[in-house]
Write a structure and sequence with these properties.
- The protein is mainly alpha-helical.
- It has one domain.
- It is globular and about 60 Å long.
- It starts with 6 loop residues before the first helix and ends in a 6-residue tail after the last helix.
Length: 381
């Protein structure tokens, strides 16, 4: 019998390819997406509660950001991450350009010139600069073939992160600038940096932090650190926010006061409750169980992301996932520590929960990139 050929064979081939793609798609870590959606849903409910007593209820805007973020997640997942990394230099250049524009004509709020206004909407270029920096670092470090990085390769990587980091610090947004550090360190460690070089880098970072404290920090920023060390020294001034946050977290106890029943948020005692301190609102309303649930979802997200990195098909995919995941993980770590007074207060929001368009969109794009890396274990070989 003659083998099947022509249109029937073409249809059969397409069907087999589609079946293989669906099988591969089913093996992608969709738990990562489930954790993302659940965290975003918790964030929507908490933002509504936190802003219900304000002049503006931020829930409708947050709904828009989440909807747009889901679209961007699908787009970033569908695009081959090799193509994204191939555009790293234009993305990085655009990010730097926007950071410069912010310094010249940005909107100032909270002591920092960090936003660009578009009508009633604002974007924060530093968030997109982090993503562009991760792409360029992955491009640079992904080309390294040897087991350990040499000094030149490390210096180039540090320079890639240092330029946007410096521009963000000048805004001044030291919290946002600091978020480039875990990205850089995570990618360098995975790429193969020697321990002695890492120790030297740590020493330089400590000396740089000391210099920043002396010459680069505004008075209000130093006051935040001093208040962190001794919050009782200014209970109605710089120490007010952290004190109210601790009261909110502690008053939630085990089961919480109930949705929209928190005193610190509903009676407007807690500042920035729909943005940087949204976790304190969650803790007050849902107590230990609510906090444990949110942290478990974050842990599930990070664990799934780490699993994607470990089983990525190439070095480029590993580095890219590590870069974006390090930023998200450090945001979670710092923000949750901040609301209970373990670290100084800075403007570092909580992924998927805090109100904010730019940060929300970047988190969804990062999640799409991670899922895209996982899916392409099987395709385009």
């Amino acid at each position: 019998m003659r083998p099947t050929s022509g249109p029937i064979s073409a249809i059969t081939s397409r069907s087999e390819a589609a079946g293989a793609s669906l099988a591969h798609l089913a093996e992608v870590r969709w738990g990562l997406l489930a954790a993302t959606l659940l965290l975003a849903a918790i964030g929507l409910a908490t933002v509504h509660s936190a802003s219900s007593e304000l002049a503006t209820d931020y829930l409708p805007r947050q709904l828009v950001w989440v909807a747009v973020g889901l679209v961007l997640l699908l787009v970033s997942m569908s695009v081959d991450y090799h193509a994204l990394v191939g555009l790293a230099i234009p993305f990085y250049g655009l990010g730097l350009l926007l950071l410069v524009i912010v310094l010249l004509a940005g909107h100032e709020a909270g002591g920092a010139r960090a936003w660009l206004g578009i009508g009633a909407w604002r974007i924060q270029p530093s968030e997109f600069a982090k993503l562009a920096t991760a792409l360029l670092l992955a491009r640079h470090l992904g080309r390294v073939k040897q087991r350990h990085l040499n000094l030149r390769q490390i210096a180039v990587a540090v320079a890639i992160a240092a330029v946007p980091m410096a521009l963000v610090a000048v805004e001044p947004d030291l919290g946002g600038a600091a978020m480039f550090v875990p990205m850089l360190l995570g990618m360098l460690i995975v790429a193969g940096v020697r321990v002695r070089i890492l120790a030297a880098f740590t020493l330089v970072f400590v000396l740089g932090a000391a210099a920043t404290w002396t010459f680069g920090m505004q008075d209000y920023q130093r006051q935040r650190v001093a208040t962190f060390l001794r919050p009782e020294s200014d209970p109605l001034g710089a120490g007010y926010q952290v004190r109210q946050s601790k009261i909110a977290v502690g008053s939630g106890e085990f089961l919480g006061r109930g949705y929209m029943q928190g005193t610190q948020s509903q009676l407007r005692f807690l500042p920035a409750r729909h943005t940087d301190f949204v976790f304190a609102v969650l803790a007050e309303e849902w107590g230990f169980l609510g906090v444990a649930t949110a942290l478990a979802l974050y842990g599930f997200y990070i664990a799934n992301g780490a699993e994607v990195a470990m089983r990525a098909r190439d070095r480029l995919g590993v580095l890219l996932v590590v870069g974006v995941l390090a930023v998200i993980a450090f945001h979670v770590l710092y923000n949750t520590a901040m609301v209970v007074g373990l670290v100084p207060i800075t403007g570092i929001p909580l992924p998927f929960l805090s109100y904010g368009g730019s940060f929300m969109l970047v988190n969804f794009i990062a999640t799409g990139i991670i899922l895209g890396v996982d899916y392409r274990r099987y395709v385009n070989r």
